[in-house]
Amino acid sequence: MDFELTIIVPVYNEEGNIERLHKELCRFLDGSAIKAKVLFINDGSKDSSLQKLREICKNSDNFTYCSFDRNHGLSAAIKAGFDCSDTPWTGYMDADLQTTPMDFNVLLEFTGEYDLITGVRLDRRDSAVKSLSSLIANKIRRAFTHDGMDDTGCPLKIIRTDVAKRIPMFNGLHRFLPAMVLLQNGKIKQVPVRHFPRTDGKSNFYLWNRLMGPLMDCFAYLWMKKKYINYKVEESSQNP
Fold first, then answer.
1. Which of 21, 53, 88, 190 sees the fewest Cβ atoms within 10 Å?
2. Dihedral, CA atoms, 201, 12, 95, 47, nearest 10 degrees?
């Protein structure tokens, strides 16, 4: 049976989480609603993350990895995953396990009708500063994009791969995936998922890059929306 879903997991200095992450991903793969595999993207980790990923992937055909030459950031890691994905659907989640891969099954229930299904974290287990900054950033972004999404920063999403590959990525665009799918006249949906406190490692996001970064990205999105090329071929003599 061919794989139907590739799960992208960007990894940056997560050596303390990888063993537990591997166990949770194995648990999901065993109980997944469709046949799935995992693609780790090592984003230039400076700890032993890459070594641990090599060991995991050496012992299983369900796990693969690619490793950047240096740290390029989350958007680059997601783009690399989209570029490498060879399954009809592509999902992604963070390596910190503040969301659980088991909730991919919740998102998969809606793949028959939607092109992007994204989680929305209802009982947030973050610090007050992080939660407040996320709330403000989402309101700013929603005012620019009108995508109707409450939590685009939720690190649990599933997207149709052919749609994902058409998204022109830039740094910060991972927050705008629903809006970019809408530009393709796609259909999007948000679904409540569970959220957990971080138990190891540290967040790479702070007040400045959670507020000023998204605000600047909104202007980049508006420029892209104005210039975006979207077409549909009605007839062609070319072979498929």
1. 88
2. -60
| Side-chain half-sphere exposure of 147, counting CA atoms within 13 A | 34
Backbone angles phi, psi at 131, to 5 degrees: -65, -45
C-alpha distances in Å from residue 153, one per residue of 13, 113, 142, 150? 20, 22, 12, 9
Indicate whether this model's pTM tops 0.90.
no
pLDDT tens across 78-129, in order?
Answer: 999 999 999 999 999 999 999 999 999 999 999 999 999 999 988 765 555 5
Q: CA 103 → CA 30, 68, 100, 115, 216, distances in Å?
A: 13, 28, 6, 17, 31
Task: Domains for the chain: give ranges and CATH numbers.
Answer: 5-227 (3.90.550.10)
d(CA 166, CA 163): 5
